[in-house]
Amino acid sequence: MLWALAAPTASAYAPRVNFQLQCMGCHHPDGNGEPGRVPSVRGTLVPFSLLPDGRDFVMRVPGVSQSPLSDAELAALLNWMVHNLSDIAVPEAFVDYTAAEVGRVRHQPLVGVAAARAKLLEQVGAH
Amino acid sequence: MKWLDRLAEGSVRAVARRTSRRSVLAGLGTLLVGAAAIPLLPVARGAEVKAGKDAAKPAAGTAGDPGDPATCEYWRHCAIDGFLCSCCGGSQTTCPPGTEMSAVTWIGTCHNPADGKDYVISYNDCCGKSSCGRCFCNRNERDTPLYQPGQSNDYNWCSGNSTANIPYHCSTARIVGAAE
Hints:
Number of strands of chain B: 8
Helix content of chain B: 10-25%
Shape of chain B: elongated
Strand content of chain A: under 5%
Order of helices and strands of chain B: HHHEEEEEEEE
Structural class of chain B: alpha+beta
Distance between the termini of chain A: 37 Å
Low-confidence stretches of chain B: 42-58
CATH class of chain A: Mainly Alpha
Oligomer: heterodimer
Largest sheet of chain A: none
Strand order of the largest sheet of chain B: 2-5-7
Largest sheet of chain B: 3 strands, antiparallel
């Protein structure tokens, strides 16, 4: 907890600007990514966010777990992405990401990102 | 040929009688300064632009976007690491002919002295030709070490793009929006 308090945080920007600064360079302005190199979030973020394993994955991918943003900023950013960069309508069952949840999960290293993603894709039947 | 010698001697002596040494020096001085000032005239600068040196330099030097995009000091270059496309046949927003803009890019924020606001700047690389080699600029605000790749500008961002060719040529500095 002390580490979290002492950690440097980026300036307090709106989630949209944090997306531009921290994610857009690789995931592109619309979240579509680069085929074969940077995965798209448009068809996956919402279905992943409805599954416990999927939420776990989203909060542990390299861009999130290594982000200079605080847990609260990351939670706000993920919620913004769910509502603004998804081709799939956000169902009522969607639960907002919270700072506490992000803080609990993000620091567990995710080994084998591609394999974990492939397994999830199978689970949600997306591609 | 004696007549030629005499003619030359006579005309030189005539000039020497009519003019003082100081007036010759003054004339030469005027000529020197005048010649040096010719490139400062608007006509000469217009010719350079036509020659394509900075042909696509849209808002450069305007009140809202102050400075010269062909210099490292230009405000949008605060986080750049590379050759300025403004010096390489492109501009701060466009790639030189024969190169392609990489969509995967390094992003930073810079302070615009004109309105005192911070802006999100996208340093899209232009790819497909060997390094431009002109106007290298390395300012690196908010740059992180290579082991934090998402925020490191030391990468060759051309390699992250599936459509652009790999060689890096130069970097642009495009405004994404206000950082608020």
